[in-house]
Amino acid sequence: MSRQEILVIDDEAQIRKLLEITLRNNGYKVIEASTANEGLVLAASHPPDLILLDIGLPDENGQSVLKKLREWYQKPIIILSVQNDEENIINALDNDASDYLTKPFRTGELLARIRAFIRNSDVLEEKSNRTIGNLFIDFKTRTVKKNNELIKLTATEYTLLSLLIKNEGRVLTHQYILNQVWGPNQADQSQSLRVFIAQLRKKVENDHNNPELIITESRVGYRFVSST
């Protein structure tokens, strides 16, 4: 079985070296780019299994690079950046970044997220159903069971749950969810989103007051987490 390949786009030589050593020691192939243009060329000529992208590139803003990549590249893109302000994080996630880690980052956390995204990137779309602990979701029949008992979900609740599961591990911003579930220009539905999340937790979580599946990312959005 061939090793997964990761493209690192970062202008800091020290960071690239750290990532190269860490990733190679954990069984990944690594290709590197120090500029936006070089990264775009490498991604297009030999699409990797995952991209690590810095926002502060010398020749082009990483947010712009992210948008260009997302015109055709569907696999995970994790942002690594020293910019930790809320606006940059939300913009990246709304531009379809898979995740956002600020520098300095913990290599153990980065590796865990890489494993999760690579594991889920192809499998989730191919599967017609998922078993997550005591939950069973059939995407073809749009049915959900907990402990083998059918859960009655509204159409909106099911759409919301399906969206979260199919983006497992990824932070989905409030605006992204609103656009996907309620349609564009529905920012006034933010209160409805909170209500539906609360209702959904009551139906799928073992303890809705201490959720383990649908995790709140403060001021940003929600992330679906599963160990399966």
Characterise the protein shown here:
By secondary structure, this protein is an alpha/beta fold. The chain has helices spanning 13-25, 36-45, 62-69, 86-94, 107-126, 155-166, 174-181, 190-204, and strands at residues 5-9, 29-33, 50-54, 77-81, 99-102, 129-132, 135-138, 143-146, 149-151, 171-173, 214-217, 221-224. It folds into 2 domains: 5-122, Response regulator (Rossmann fold, 3-Layer(aba) Sandwich); 127-224, Winged helix-like DNA-binding domain superfamily/Winged helix DNA-binding domain (Arc Repressor Mutant, subunit A). It is built from 8 helices and 12 strands. Strand 4, helix 4 and strand 5 form a beta-alpha-beta unit. Helix 6 crosses helix 8 (190-204). The chain is globular.
Q: Roughly how many Å is the radius of gyration?
A: 18 Å
Poorly predicted sequence stretches spanning 5 or more consecutive residues: none
CATH class category name of the largest domain:
Alpha Beta
What is the percent of helical residues?
40-55%
Give the CA-CA distance, first to last residue.
22 Å
Strand content: 15-25%
* Helix and strand sequence: EHEHEHEHEHEEEEHEHHEE
Number of domains: 2
E-strand count: 12
Quickly give the structural class.
alpha/beta
Question: What would you say about this model in short?
Answer:
The protein is an alpha/beta fold. It folds into 2 domains: 5-122, Response regulator (Rossmann fold, 3-Layer(aba) Sandwich), CATH 3.40.50.2300; 127-224, Orthogonal Bundle (Arc Repressor Mutant, subunit A). It is 42% helix and 22% strand.
